[in-house]
Write a structure and sequence with these properties.
single chain, 25 helices, 78% helix
């Protein structure tokens, strides 16, 4: 822990790189998850006005709800599209150039949002949301690849947590800027929706000063001088030979192995359990109940006596809590380990969801139960931010080598968006039929994820990708394969002893 902090202090350029990558990276993803809550009445009014003036139609409430649902969900469709192409483009054009091009989508989408009210066109909002989705889906994959590959081994965990920190910061920014006193008013809501364009411009102006990812330069391009130069720029002057040696060993292991497509990754039996680990963790990241907890938070705050006109300010507390926990996770991840954080986080989230189900059902019977529910909501956010949120997105970098990594991130990113889309569709149905007992479904998902990680994910703390790959093979080999592997290890050690 102390060594990691010391290394971080000695690498100010790496800290600056984290900030630059985050502004046009996962910040956009988090921002668009929360930003529509505040201007929703004004957008619905624009839809009604457009249909009345242009088509002479008076919309039924269910039609308006359908159009609004499409405006919300088209963001996920764009996210899936962006995730599907991100891995391939990041491999062909590099991480840096891909992110630069991606900011153009954010700027075009912002222009659509800004002009939608003037043009009396809700269709422009739909197009803007689609472009924002493609931008966010692409950034979620490439930002993760870029920042983790720019980090030295001792700071890789902190770099991974920064991805979740910018997601939380984006959510909080959407809540904060959506206040009526800022950009959430009837006159200024187009500027609120166009704010992502400003973040895209900011990254477009600053990203050219960063070097390309050292891992990409050496492992994908075979350019060792450029790799060493990038290390010096990011980590400062010094001897980084151990990091280069690790990369050279990985390059030797994948020598002659070309970049794997998503289809090849899914059908490759040698990385089946790594693939299943990504599938389970990325899916449960949405099905763990985080969106359900945020939705019920409003009802809990209202029942606890917070006036309706102040609920926006109360929800800012949940956003601040998630940011603070992400920063805390960055401080403990290197000493605790990602496997432990995933198992502990999911188990504790399941326990909190069980207690939250009880307190929500007793709110009307016991006057102090809403306060218990409030406390449980913040405890849940604590374990979510210090476990799955801080570890899951960057997990593929730890368990896949360079040939599989872009495809693995494409699969993980696409599953995240598909799960988010399904939650948006299924959650209202769960609430309608199960009420507060809907948390039992999410509780089961958390328990399943914890059990899967405990059984199938080896320890990855302070280990190289080659060592982790060997652990996966040893854990999931058939019994005869395990005996054969052990005998080969014994023979290897005996040979070394004889030579000595």
């Amino acid at each position: 822990m102390t060594q990691a902090i010391s290394l971080l202090v000695r690498s100010p350029r790496f800290v600056i790189a984290i900030l630059i990558l985050g502004t046009g990276g996962t910040f956009q993803y988090g921002f668009h998850i929360s930003v529509l809550n505040s201007p929703s009445p004004f957008i619905k009014e624009l839809v009604n006005k457009t249909c009345t003036e242009r088509y002479n139609l008076s919309l039924e409430p269910w039609v308006l709800s359908l159009i609004w649902s499409f405006i919300v969900s088209i963001y996920c469709i764009g996210g899936i599209l962006g995730s599907l192409v991100a891995g391939r483009l990041a491999h062909v054009y590099g991480r840096k150039r891909s992110l630069l091009f991606n900011n153009v989508l954010a700027i075009v989408g912002a222009s659509m949002m800004l002009l939608s009210k003037v043009a009396d066109s809700f269709e422009m909002i739909m197009i803007g949301r689609l472009l924002y989705g493609v931008n966010s889906g692409f950034a979620l994959v490439v930002h993760t690849l870029y920042v983790v590959e720019c980090a030295p081994r001792m700071l890789r965990g902190i770099a991974g947590v920064s991805i979740a920190t910018f997601v939380a910061l984006g959510k909080f920014s959407g809540q904060l800027l959506g206040l009526r006193e800022l950009l959430g008013s009837e006159d200024r809501w187009p500027w609120l929706l166009a704010f992502s364009g400003f973040m895209g411009i900011l990254q477009l102006l600053t990203l050219p000063f960063l070097p390309e990812s050292p891992h990409y330069l050496l492992l994908d391009r075979g350019d060792r001088p450029s790799c060493e130069k990038a290390m010096q720029q990011l980590w400062g002057k010094g001897d980084h030979i151990s990091e280069i040696e690790d990369m050279l060993l990985q390059r030797a292991a994948i020598q002659g192995v070309r970049y794997r497509s998503v289809w090849e990754l899914i059908h490759d039996q040698t990385v089946r359990w790594q693939m299943l680990t990504v599938i389970v963790t990325c899916s449960v990241l949405q099905f763990c109940g985080i969106n359900a907890v945020y939705m019920y938070a409003l009802d809990v705050f209202r029942t606890a006596g917070i006036p309706s006109h102040q609920l926006q300010y109360a929800t800012l507390g949940t956003g601040l809590c998630e940011i603070a926990i992400s920063l805390t996770c960055a401080m403990i991840i290197e000493s605790t380990g990602k496997r432990v954080l995933l198992i502990r986080g999911n188990l504790m989230m399941a326990a909190v969801l069980g207690l939250l189900t009880v307190t929500l059902n007793l709110q009307k019977q016991v006057f102090w139960m809403p306060y218990c529910s409030m406390i449980l909501i913040f405890i849940y956010i604590f374990f979510f931010g210090s476990g799955p949120a801080g570890v899951t997105i960057a997990l593929a970098s730890d368990i896949f080598n360079q040939a599989y990594k872009p495809a693995a991130y494409t699969v993980g990113g696409s599953l995240n968006w598909i799960s988010l889309f399904l939650i948006g569709i299924l959650f209202p149905v769960l609430v309608q039929y199960l009420g507060e007992f809907c948390f039992i479904v999410f509780l089961a998902c958390c328990l399943f994820c914890a059990a899967f990680i405990w059984r199938h994910l080896p320890e990855i703390k302070n280990r190289t990708i080659l060592e982790i790959t060997e652990d996966f093979q040893r854990m999931h080999a058939p019994k005869r394969g395990v005996v054969k592997w052990c005998m080969s290890e014994v023979k290897t050690q005996a040979t070394k002893s004889t030579k000595l």
